[in-house]
Amino acid sequence: MQYIVFTDLDGTLVDHDTYSYEAAMPAIDMLKEKGIPLVFCTSKTRAEIEVYVDELNTGHPFISENGGAIFIPHDYFDVDYVSSRSTEKYDIIELGTDYSLLRNVLLNIAASEDLSVTGFGDMTDVEVSKDTGLDLDSACLAKQREYDEAFKLDGDEKDAETLISKIQANGLNYTRGGRYWHIIGENDKGKAVNILTQIYRKQYGDIKTVGLGDSLNDYPMLKVVDIPYLVQKHNGKHDPKIMDAKVNKVEGIGPVGWNMAISELLM
Ligand SMILES: [Mg+2]
Fold first, then answer.
1. Residue-level pLDDT at 58
2. Residue 177 pLDDT more than 90?
3. pLDDT in tens, 90-104
4. Distance (Å) from CA 21 to ligand 1 centroid
5. For residue 177, what is the domain's CATH number?
6. Which InterPro entries did the record assign (predicted)?
């Protein structure tokens, strides 16, 4: 039996404030030793994820922008699968909606409903850096969005309700991560994990999938894996929006909880 580990990055494998994965290194090393694929599944962009792929030398497929696309390195699988397009490095399975369309819809809603919405597309690299705590280079990579606009809403609960109903009326969806709202198409992390899981199953036969997350945008992923874990958010609490009893709650914040969950699973 082969484990496959799917993980969120921000607030889960990497610390919400420092963006460090240091606390999770023992468990990351265990996965490497045992030849268990570690698949990043995050709201981050392809450009941002590639930094982590290079640093942790995983070489495995990854899922960007809340399930917007699956990037599979060429020759990673022996089995066949259908992709949307290929680049020099990857076969890409696209599930998301084009970024410029998402931006247009969001800006139109903000204007017509008089909502104070600020997206990454409205912000400079410096502003994204200040707001997220990312360094300037990382902020620049975070702005290279393809399938998901991250934004802030400056408003009350009523504004939030208006925004949600207008997004849905436009045939689009929303989700919320640790810091931002996201406007997306039909994609979510769960759909992307399902597709990639099917390819892994073709390749390995008997597999068991593991998923780790911290926020509501991880819930679709946690629902479709065999072993779901929810780590604590930076305030030391589990996300109250996830009430599913099947999700294993880990008593540790972000990468500390991640390390505990994977270490205990593999003991
Ligand atoms: Mg997160």
1. 78
2. no
3. 999 999 999 999 999
4. 13
5. 3.30.980.20
6. HAD-like_sf (IPR036412), HAD-SF-IIB-MPGP (IPR006381), HAD-SF_hydro_IIB (IPR006379), HAD_sf (IPR023214), MPG_Pase_thermophiles (IPR033980)
If DSSP states are collapsed to H, E and C, what string results for 33-101? HHCCCEEEECCCCHHHHHHHHHHHCCCCCEEECCCCEEEEECCCCCCCCCCCEECCCEEEEECCCCHHH
Q: What's the average model confidence in pLDDT over 45-60?
A: 93
79 alpha carbon to ligand 1 midpoint, in Å? 31
Q: Say if residue 64 is in the same domain as residue 8.
A: yes
Distance 7 CA to ligand 1 centre (A): 9
Compute the distance from residue 143 Cα to the ligand 1 centre, in Å.
Answer: 17
Distance 80 CA to ligand 1 centre (A): 31
Full-model pTM = 0.93
Q: Active-site residue numbers?
A: 8
Other CB atoms within 10 Å distance of the CB of residue 174: 18
The last residue of one of the domains, among 161, 184, 207, is 184
Tens of pLDDT, residue by residue over 151-164, are: 999 999 999 999 99
